[in-house]
Design a protein that fits this description.
This protein is an alpha/beta fold. The chain has a domain at 60-389: Metal-dependent hydrolases (TIM Barrel), CATH 3.20.20. Helices cover 31% and strands 22% of the residues. The strands form 2 sheets. Strands 1, 2, 3, 4, 5, 14, 15, 16 and 17 form a 9-stranded mixed β-sheet that branches. Strands 6-7-8-9-10-11-12-13 form an 8-stranded parallel β-sheet. Helix 4 (150-162) runs parallel beside helix 5, helix 5 (182-195) crosses helix 8 (233-250) and helix 8 runs parallel beside helix 9. It is globular, with a radius of gyration of 21 Å. The structure holds N-(aminocarbonyl)-beta-alanine and zinc ion (2 copies).
Length: 480
């Protein structure tokens, strides 16, 4: 078994910062000891990594990606290609997980989609077939439930039991595609209350949004910026409120994905104040981008079309505050990349046909570190929201998301003072634009280990497709 020693770094976890050496045997961390201590000095290893002047942090856990996404299952109820343009995410599991590692993320949780009229099993089988043998880092699956019925409810029990998928995303948006009505949502939540599965909710009132979409298009409002205008903040807040109440009736936990609006966050905060097991996730795009981007001239705004949509800049302060106060626990990317040429372009002349989604799996750790540099969050909170909390939320902790004896040696040696400029010309995601083009960030990944294997070092890719393993998961670590 190869012994690896990471020396002289500042080890940062969600709870501690210590100058410590980290000893790895094979795929696991086996011990930590204060740098310079007799214990650390006595350690020998085949491979020694010097982390002087660097942070040693757990590999990032991105709990919301759509690498295997599409083409979407059915046209929408108006017969148009749906919000995803009948097209597929531009990354493969090979390119997407490699890009994740370049950005310091060593675990992703992707969404397997239940085909309409099909089973959860069919969706998961399709995702396993896409991912197996192709991933550079470890991966797990949530399940998108697009059709709640008795058979599906039984499947949910079995998936939670086996750990193949212990979290289930439901949509209050996208009528005719992924949408579930309140009755179906309630039934799925009731099942989650019994079997321990976590309900993840896309909280937007899609029925009302579709009316506003039709009206906007009829009035000749076809530019990307109208995507943000019709997907009204109030309709995110209303759906979030309804999701909380349905979860309360069902007695189930609730995890609200991609929270973008201050008023939706207020609903989550209120629920948490009442002691309800309600959790919230936001994404870098809502923290760093705004409706100003959607309104960029020409058709440039299409690059920023995602749902929930980008909001006016004022919302960002509320989201940062929510992250500091723990009303939001997780930052994931919702990485759902579509190229500008040939994919986003499907919506020229009709914003509703722009495939919904943004690339970002490679940028999350660095963007959040920039928030550390700017004093918005502490270093420990950075590690918590990007590594530890997502691992714990989705039943992967303590194997993932921390630096501790027994944990997988998924580790990042991070240079906190290196300066980089984000660009599509240098990123590794298979997408022809960057949502953060030209942004200067302080901080950069230097070395990445995935289960003890060095996959990236000093700008050199050393990983391989197929190194990443499928992860079975426990249930949410914030309950019970
Ligand atoms: O626009 C987005 N977010 N696309 C991915 C699908 C989803 O709703 O998360
Ligand atoms: Zn969603
Ligand atoms: Zn998503």
């Amino acid at each position: 078994m190869t012994r690896t020693l990471i020396q002289n770094g500042l080890v940062i976890t969600a709870t501690e910062e210590i100058h410590a050496d980290v000893l790895i045997e094979g795929e696991r961390v086996v011990a930590l000891a204060a740098t310079g201590s007799a214990t650390a000095e006595a350690w020998t290893a085949e491979r020694v990594i010097d982390a002087t002047g660097h942070y040693v942090i757990p590999g990032g856990v991105d709990a919301h990606t759509h690498i295997g996404f599409g083409p979407d299952p059915v046209p929408d109820k108006m017969g148009r290609s749906s919000a995803f343009g009948g097209t597929a995410a531009s990354d493969t599991f090979e390119t997407g997980t490699r890009a994740a590692a370049w950005g310091g993320t060593t675990t992703i949780v992707d969404f397997a989609v239940q085909p309409v009229g099909g089973s959860l099993r069919e969706g998961l089988d399709a995702w396993h077939a896409k991912a197996e043998g192709n991933c550079a880092v470890d991966y797990a699956f949530h399940t998108i439930v697009s059709d709640v019925n008795d058979a599906v409810l039984k499947e949910m029990d079995a998936l939670v039991d086996s750990g193949e998928s212990t979290s289930f995303k439901l949509f209050m948006a996208y009528p005719g595609v992924f949408y579930s009505d309140d009755g179906r949502i309630l039934r799925a939540m009731q099942r989650g209350a019994l079997n321990g599965g976590l309900t993840m909710m896309h909280a937007e009132n899609g029925i009302a949004i579709d009316v506003l979409v039709e009206q906007a298009l009829a009035a000749g409002k076809t530019d990307p910026r109208y995507h943000g205008e019709v997907r009204r903040e109030l309709l995110e807040a209303e759906a979030t409120h309804r999701a909380v109440k349905l979860a309360q009736v069902a007695g189930s936990p609730l995890y609200v994905v991609h929270v973008s609006a201050a008023s939706a966050l207020a609903e989550i905060a209120k629920a948490r104040d009442e002691g309800l097991p309600v959790f919230g996730e936001t994404c870098p795009q809502y923290l760093f981008l705004s409706t100003d981007n959607l309104a960029e001239p020409g058709f440039e705004g299409a690059k920023y079309v995602c749902s929930t949509p980008l909001r006016p800049r004022e919302h960002q302060a509320a989201l940062w505050r929510g992250l500091r106060t723990d009303d939001l626990q997780v930052v994931s990317t919702d990485h759902c990349p579509f190229c500008f040429v040939g994919q986003k372009e499907l919506g020229r002349g009709d914003f509703s046909k722009i495939p919904n989604g943004l690339p970002g799996v490679e940028n999350r750790m660095d963007l959040l570190h920039q928030a550390v540099v700017e004093g918005r969050i502490s270093r420990r909170r950075w590690v918590e929201i990007a590594c530890t909390a997502p691992a714990r939320m989705f039943g992967l902790h303590p194997r993932k998301g921390t630096v501790a004896p027994g944990a997988d040696a998924d580790l990042v040696v991070y240079d906190p003072v290196a300066v980089q400029t984000v660009s599509a010309a240098t990123h590794h995601m298979n997408v022809d634009y960057s949502a953060y083009e030209g942004r200067q960030l302080t901080g950069r990944v230097r070395t990445v280990l995935s289960r003890g294997a060095v996959v990236l070092d000093d700008g050199q890719w050393l990983g391989r497709a197929g190194h990443g393993s499928f992860l079975r998961r426990g249930t949410c670590g914030y309950l019970g």
